[in-house]
Amino acid sequence: MSKANDLIIRIGGEGGEGIISSGDMIAQAAARSGLEVLTFKTFPAEIRGGYAMYQIRFSHEVILSEGSGFDVLCCFNQEALNNNKSQIAKGSVLIYDFPGGDIAEEQNIEGVHCYPVPMSKIAKEELNTYRSKNMVAMGAISELFSIATKSLRELIQDKFGKKGKEVVEVNFKALDAGSKYAREHLKKTDPFQMDEGKPQKDVMIISGNEAIGLGALLAGVQYFSAYPITPATEVAIFLSKHLPKVNGNLVQAEDEIASLANVIGASYGGVKSMTATSGPGLSLMQELIGMSSMMEVPVVIADVQRGGPSTGLPTKHEQSDLFLAALGSHGDASKVVLSPEGVEDCIYLTVEAFNIAEKYQVPVMVLSDGSLGFRTNSIKKPDPSKIKVVNREKYEPGTNGDKPYERYELTESGISTMSVPGQKGGNYISTGLEHAPSSAPRYSPENRVSMMDKRWGKLDNLEDFVQATEVDDMEGAQLGVIAWGSTIGTAREAVKLARAEGVKVAAIYPKLVWPLPLKALNAFAKKYPKILVPEINKQGQLASILRMKTDMKPISYNIYGGLPFTPKMIVEKIKEVC
Ligand code: COA
Question: Do 505 and 574 touch, CB atoms closer than 8 A?
Fold first, then answer.
């Protein structure tokens, strides 16, 4: 890849025009040729119509975020051009559908390499299939930036093969027509090339949602139940394909309440169990989250956050379920919330979520988000032999001597053994009612206090068990950034860029976001008097919890327009508050 070893291509057009398919193919082709790839897509809630966008960032080096802006913009229609025009930087490339398409005028933007490609016209007039317009554009892009057409042809076969031979053939023709047009009519003036990388062994390209499913499989999930909801459904789709291979079961429930009830039941029955949802579904699950906390039944809930409240911005990005996940319960329910930074993290943090759920017998949430869920990333294939899997402490019949089995026995660690229904001597009845160590309902003040302390006390040293907080110190810095979730990658890149400009800034990235890793956070705040918390929500949810739980007085930097931060935005804020 020429120019700065880092290239960003953005494709925009109307939902239904195949923007997502085109972007996926470029990303796959680049990953197959050995490049690092990170994608970002945003699309409307409607099945057809509205603005859809797919962005692919390639590099020979590890990519931390979607990046700031783009080098190449490909517009399928006028709306895409209007939405992006103000961001077209000097030196970048504009490819657009002209003449004969939705864009009425030829574009001449000073300092920008403008390439008109009549994609609609070629698709309609030469190929008789408007549907293939996106592949005409792919052909032109592959010719201009040297993307291997062989890979693209294989990907067309993979993607459209199930739609029939004719569909594949017309798309091959469209790809060729686009390449031919670019070869014969466009004079390349820009410096961008997608040089091949070194094809790497054991690399896979996977989305954040799929990675959560993969993490669950690696942790030993045996049961999954969910109700479909954007942007979390892909977790269920992935597991529906792979769970049967490990003799697991998947049930599509009638709603989110039923799905978590199923999961609690399955886990009570002795198998590792999980559900996945998004904000509105997590709201519905609240009562049952409290119940699993009370019953001490391990469950894992992936919450792929989206713009809320209510149906809000169902396909857009937001980090606004932290209050709900951490604090949204009746009573004092003990629970744990982890938040992954990137696709690879979705695998390992989901394993960690199962390990915590099993070890401490609590509900654990994995707080991902729409941008991360839909993001695809080339990552190293996980090695199952290197993954630590924790299983719950099981009741062993006969170990109690003459004493009857006590499901909620008061132990030093707060953790008591779990029997499986039907196990000899291990019978107990678990309900949402407060209970004695035996599990029988009991409401005395002494019992209530000891049981409440048991459920909370077992999490006292969680911070030491999880070790998911990374500190990036900087000597002489006055400012420390605290970022969580998928904002971490953007913050990492911003910190790197700011330091390259001589700005002294430190950072801490907690992935355990409830209960907060207070030892690490307080130690960090002692070193850096000013704290900046960039978050994608209106209220500054992490910053508020930090104010509640520590002496910090963080400076909140909140955006809530449905898009992630760019590294540039955070760099500017760092400089402003430094
Ligand atoms: N030849 C044949 N078929 C093609 C094609 C081509 N050249 N290019 C694309 N297609 C097909 C795709 O295979 C896909 O078909 P499928 O639905 O059978 O998989 C379809 O056309 C759409 O193309 P795709 O590239 O996947 O998406 P797009 O960029 O056109 O955007 C979406 C459409 C994804 C934005 C829209 O359909 C969608 O799903 N919106 C979100 C809905 C939602 O989640 N709402 C929230 C509810 S709460």
Answer: yes
Q: Which ligand 1 atom is at minimum distance from the Cα of 23?
A: 25
Q: How far is the CA of 402 from the centre of ligand 1 (A)?
A: 64
**Ligand 1 centre distance from Cα of residue 43 (Å):** 10
Cα(234) to ligand 1 centroid in Å equals 14
Q: What is the pLDDT of residues 417-453, one digit of tens each?
A: 999 999 999 999 999 999 999 999 999 999 999 999 9
What is the overall mean pLDDT for the chain? 95
Nearest-CA residue for atom 30 of ligand 1: 16
Encode pLDDT of 476-523 as tens digits.
Answer: 999 999 999 999 999 999 999 999 999 999 999 999 999 999 999 999
Is there a shared CATH topology between the 205-386 domain and the 469-577 domain? yes
Q: What pTM does this model have?
A: 0.94
- SS3 of 60-82: the string is CCCCCCCCCCCCEEEECCHHHHH
Q: Is the CB of 18 under 6 A from ligand 1?
A: yes
Is the beta carbon of 510 within 6 A of some atom in ligand 1? Answer: no
Under 8 Å between Cβ of 70 and 93: no
Output the CATH code of domain 205-386: 3.40.50.970
CATH of the domain spanning 6-185: 3.40.920.10
* Helix ranges (DSSP H) in 315-460: 322-327, 343-360, 370-374, 445-457
pLDDT value of residue 193: 87
Q: Which CATH architecture has domain 469-577?
A: 3-Layer(aba) Sandwich (3.40)
Q: Where are the domains of the chain?
A: 6-185, 205-386, 469-577
